[in-house]
Specification:
Length: about 260
């Protein structure tokens, strides 16, 4: 066996072991954040402050994206359903697509790229400038004071942003299908109300967004804390947050969908 093949196998093994070690560190760090969360939740003002930065300031991209996704769904759905004489069901198609799938997933991807990357940058820069070490020296727990409030702000923000995304998407579908194309208003809403189930569709979509919020927030705070204390290290950690979060969101979406809708 040539040296190049041996070196390639060693490289794969090294990267695999390093990935397992990072997964273990991330799991222990996630448990540490949960353990330290009691202090942060008692001082809920810290969480509310982060809710503004990671939730309210993400509203613009969520609202605009949801509106245009709904408009595209309304247009494409009408063109497809018209071929089968079922254009009045466009409201049902738009609503089910959003509350079951597109609302939680697209909102989570947007949240990871905006708020998730911001969490990583903030924590990474605080580590690089030794602010976290200074807190530790002053007997202030940096995990309870800095990390946990950001984690819970992300967990709380994600389901709310996903719900707003779905609402704006339904409104966008209404604008295209009813206002612009001329689908009957009553049929649009009545079929949507009769075919969208609260437990099966809306509640399951909400549960998905909660899982996505936990995953994205946990990845973001870990990558920030685990980053190298340099500008390049923070940049690499930010990129890793977005890439890892996106892959985890899509993987979780498949797993959760398989469990939630396999009996339908």
């Amino acid at each position: 066996m040539s040296k190049h093949i041996i070196s390639a196998i060693q490289g794969v093994g090294h990267r695999t072991l390093e990935g397992i070690r990072r997964l273990g560190r991330a799991t222990l760090y996630f448990l540490l954040v949960l353990w330290k969360s009691g202090t942060s939740l008692k001082r809920f003002g810290l969480v509310v402050r982060e809710l503004y930065y990671f939730g309210v300031l993400s509203l613009i991209i969520i609202v605009v994206s949801g509106l245009f996704v709904g408009m595209v769904l309304g247009l494409q759905g009408y063109e497809t359903l018209q071929k089968y004489g079922s254009e009045t069901a466009v409201g049902t198609m738009v609503a089910l697509s959003l509350v079951r799938e597109l609302g939680p997933v697209v909102a989570a991807l947007l949240f990871a790229s905006s708020a998730g990357s911001a969490m990583t940058v903030e924590i990474g820069l605080m580590k690089a400038t030794e602010q976290l070490a200074a807190m530790d020296m002053m007997a202030v727990d940096p995990v309870a004071r800095v990390v946990a409030p950001r984690f819970w702000a992300g967990v709380i923000s994600m389901p709310l942003l996903a719900a707003i995304f779905s609402v704006m998407g339904v409104f966008g579908g209404y604008l295209v299908a009813v206002v612009f194309i001329g689908v009957d208003d009553g049929s649009f809403w009545s079929q949507m109300q009769s075919n969208v189930d609260f437990r099966v569709d809306i509640l399951n979509g909400f549960i998905k967004s909660c899982f996505f919020g936990i995953a994205v927030s946990a990845i973001a705070v870990f990558e920030g804390h685990d980053s190298l204390p340099t500008a390049e290290g923070v940049s690499v950690a930010t990129t890793r947050t977005v890439v890892t979060s996106s892959l985890v969101i899509l993987g979780l979406d498949f797993i959760l969908t398989a469990f939630m809708f396999r009996g339908l």
